[in-house]
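thought: fold this chain, then report.
action: predict
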Amino acid sequence: MNRSVLKRERQNKVRRDRNRVIKSKVHTAKIRLVEAIETKNREDVEMRLRTFMSEVDKAVKRNIFHRNKGARLKSRIVKKIKDVFNEHKQAS
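observation:
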């Protein structure tokens, strides 16, 4: 096999492992946030929401998620929080 092919495989493995760690952090933060939402603990939700937003932003910044995917994840979780805590704005 060509030396450049072997090097490319090594690089891809390193990048894949690095990306998997970051995706896992986002997923774990989301799971913990959803659990906090289900318990309806306001302070815990706010703390975990900040953590989740931060992890998503880091993943977007590192080009692991597309910026639209990051926005979509954040938008859906905020909508879920507002549904649980009944904080939707009323139409005038």
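thought: worth noting. DSSP finds three helices and no strands in the chain.
final: tokens above.
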